[in-house]
Amino acid sequence: GGGDRNPFGVDFAAEGHAWTKALCEMDSDGDGRSNGIELGDPECVWVVGVDPAGPALSHPGIEDEPIENPNLSTCVDYVEPEEIEIMDVSFTQVNTVDESQTHYICEQYEYDVSSLTEDVYHLVKTEILLDNPALLHHAFVYICPEGTMSTDGDRVGEGSYSCYGSTENSCRRVGGWAVGGTGFCYPQQVGDELIIGGAEKLVVKLEAHYDNALGQPQSDQSGMKLTLTPNLRPLVSNTVLLVMCTPVNDFVILPLSEDHVL
Prior knowledge:
Elements: H1 7-14, H2 21-25, H3 35-38, E1 85-90, E2 95-97, E3 102-112, E4 120-129, E5 136-144, E6 161-162, E7 172-178, E8 184-185, E9 190-195, E10 201-211, E11 218-220, E12 223-229, E13 235-237
Parallel strand pairs: 9-13
Antiparallel strand pairs: 1-12, 2-11, 3-6, 3-10, 4-8, 4-9, 4-12, 5-7, 5-10
């Protein structure tokens, strides 16, 4: 994201951007715990494609305290609704990036929702469909209601195109993921409202930010899995995007009315 690397970033670069035994045994941030211990690989045996021995306990580049509950997840208590519909939303073609570091790539296409017979559904779970974990930095999925055009304009069916992580003013963000994330599950009484309204197709927009730290041409075709239910929950959530351009000492969000819960 710019700026100086933290101590772990410096050591990682010095090791050729590889998880070596030497890097694992280092204590980059000087907090008394090796990088391997902080990242869930105390025996320094992790290799690409294999789950680490345990969850990350702390940050290897910042002198901090271990997380008290490293298994904390929004999906620990998730219970699958009796009725669900699944939307698997992925890039329809392989995205290729060159050796430069930062790339934003988007795509818009029509998604068949003719099987969704209810007017309104609640989104209750999102999961990343990760293709290239060494390349994808974060991703968003937007749904454009029937008749709505993306901020990028009508690019439906054109395939992938270069974009710049712009704020989407027209289409609703319904899923997001960033490095280190897993699935996101809404609390049992909460759902994110998705209005189908009898439409047969909705426009889906995917936005991916690729961080090519290896500096080599790579490819990716990631996406997200959305779990919907027609069994509407009593509380409806929404997403607010906050962009802080200057230092803020106090930030207060007030409910719009007694019906809004924060």
